[in-house]
Specification:
- With 249 residues, the protein is an alpha/beta fold.
- 39% of the residues lie in helices and 25% in strands.
- The protein contains 9 helices and 10 strands.
- The strands form 2 sheets. A 6-stranded mixed beta sheet has the order 6-7-8-3-9-10, with helices on both faces.
- β9 and β10 form a beta hairpin.
- The protein is globular.
- It starts with a strand and ends with a helix.
- 43% of the residues are buried.
Length: 249
């Protein structure tokens, strides 16, 4: 496996007496897609906010060996740590190309912008207005906007929210193509089909703590993960069904 492009160690976030993220360690290597999952309120978005500099956090964040921990968000972005947001907010009075140019700090929608759109398969949207896009296209443009700055690692916060199954599958294929070309990605999403099908590794949070790390298959079978989502009784039933299915295989 490649050396980590993004390395987070002991990342913790507290809001008053609430410990939202507790001593989380996580690595994302170049060309790898890492999923970060957990029940609602587990601390997933807060972790992304922490490593990208949008909330005060303890711990150390490195990108390519450079310590980003004390840098503001725009400096972390310039260093190669990109992100998307749950709400794909675009400037409605600018074309898609102009939206990406603004994100890339460029005055015009030149080659980096066109390349970013092409990487996620929406190059034909270059001269269109956001109001002319489908929800799936808006999500892909949001990813392209993060890619326009040529980041080493991109953190994706709920990119499949609001998408139907076909749009989610298309998104997954594009994310896989981007990572296979060398860009590391950290994916937070509630679409378990998407996460399990495209990620190389998955980290699971519950109440801000890491409770499991492994391949999609390992995580899917981890009793702690099943309990976190279904509760103890649900985990017992899921285990029984899995045993029956394996016995009958």
């Amino acid at each position: 496996m490649s050396a980590a492009a993004l390395s987070a160690r002991g990342v913790s976030v507290s809001f008053g007496g609430v410990h939202a993220v507790v001593d989380v360690d996580l690595d994302v290597a170049e060309g790898r897609l890492v999923g970060l999952i957990g029940p609602n309120g587990a601390g997933k978005t807060t972790f992304i906010d922490a490593i990208t500099g949008f909330v005060r956090a303890r711990g150390r964040v490195e990108l390519g060996g450079r310590d980003l921990s004390k840098l503001p968000p725009h400096e972390r972005a310039r260093s190669g740590l990109g992100r998307t947001w749950q709400a794909t907010e675009l400037f409605d009075d600018l074309t898609v190309g102009e939206n990406l140019a603004v994100a890339a700090g460029s005055a015009e929608d030149g080659e980096p912008v066109r390349e970013a759109l092409a990487r996620v398969g929406v190059e034909t949207a270059l001269d269109r207005l956001p109001s002319e896009l489908s929800q799936g296209e808006r999500k892909l443009v949001g990813v392209a906007r993060a890619l326009a700055g040529s980041p080493r690692v991109v953190c994706l916060d709920e990119p499949a929210a609001g998408l139907d199954s076909a749009e989610s599958e298309q998104l997954g294929r594009r994310l896989r193509e981007v990572t296979d070309s060398g860009t590391g990605m950290l994916l937070v999403d509630h679409d378990m089909g998407l996460v399990l099908s495209v990620c190389d590794e998955i980290v699971v949070l519950e109440f801000g703590h890491v409770i499991a790390t492994g391949t999609p298959e390992e995580v899917r079978r981890d009793r702690r993960v099943v309990e976190a989502y279904l509760g103890a009784a649900g985990a017992e039933r899921a285990a029984e069904r899995l045993d029956i299915a394996e016995d009958g295989a």
